[in-house]
Amino acid sequence: MSSKLSKILLPVSQQGTTEACRRAAFGLARDFAARLEVVHLCPAAWQRLPYATEISPFFSEEVLDICRGQVSADQAEAKAWFEQAVLAHPGAPTDFQCVEGFPATTMTARARVADLSVVPSIAARDDEFWMAVGDAALFQSGRPVLVVPQETPNRFGETIVVAWKDSVESVRAVTAAEPFLAKAKRIVLLSVAEDDKDDPSLAAMAEYLALTGLNVETSRIASKFDTVGKALLHGASNAPGTLLVMGAYGHWRWREWVFGGVTQEVLRDATVPALMAH
């Protein structure tokens, strides 16, 4: 089983990102000896122009000059945040760049050439910028995403709980988690029983992971809670420093909340970091 992460992507606004995201991204880069790419997703000057059907060329150029000044100020603020982050987390190999354009488009392109993107949970940063960035990373990049809530400790992943379901998304999530599984001390394949039928795929996946040298426990819990999402979050919160691994379900935009209920609940309510793959 591969234990290699080569590049981690940390998207930031002009104000950076959450403290928990910063700690997680820099810590993973250090622990896995991976390159951390910090990218300031900066809307271009022309994208900041106020919409108007009729505007004189002279006035338009004046407004554009103001917008260019805003871009420069935002980039300087983001660079200052990055320099402080590097001082707080020495030893992690890092790059920084500002990319002008639509944040979601830039995020999609950059995430596709990284092993993992680190983004705040919805509860941590519930605004248009981060919703667009999270949507692009999770549903458009084809790469896994680490969703980081505010409560995330400095270190996590000693225990990994895999939210198992017999689905393509779950298999992709397990594959994405291989570097973390290789370092974990305890791995639990957790299935929430929505009916009385046995789930042979749970034992089959545990057997497959055992062939790669991993010691895996299986747990099939009854859904005593209102929803499957709450049952999973309860199961993942029992051990400190847990990493939850799960597939992300749905095909619509993060900002519209129109995807699988389990995915939505974890994005909004998780108190542990969640590695997700769509």
CATH architecture of the largest domain: 3-Layer(aba) Sandwich
The structure class reads: alpha/beta
Largest sheet: 10 strands, mixed
Mean pLDDT score, rounded?
85
Task: Note the total helix count.
Answer: 9
Description:
The protein has 278 residues and is of the alpha/beta class. It folds into two domains: 7-148, 3-Layer(aba) Sandwich (Rossmann fold); 159-277, Rossmann fold (3-Layer(aba) Sandwich). Helices cover 41% and strands 22% of the residues. It has nine helices and ten strands. The protein has helices spanning 19-32, 57-88, 103-111, 128-140, 168-176, 178-183, 200-211, 228-236, 261-269; strands spanning 7-12, 35-42, 94-100, 116-120, 145-148, 159-163, 186-193, 216-222, 242-247, 274-277. The protein has a ten-stranded mixed β-sheet with strand order 3-2-1-4-5-10-9-6-7-8, with helices on both faces. Helix 9 (261-269) links the parallel strand 9 and strand 10. Helix 3 runs parallel beside helix 4 and helix 8 crosses helix 9 (261-269). The longest helix is centred in the first third of the chain and has 32 residues, at 57-88. The radius of gyration is 20 Å and the shape is elongated.
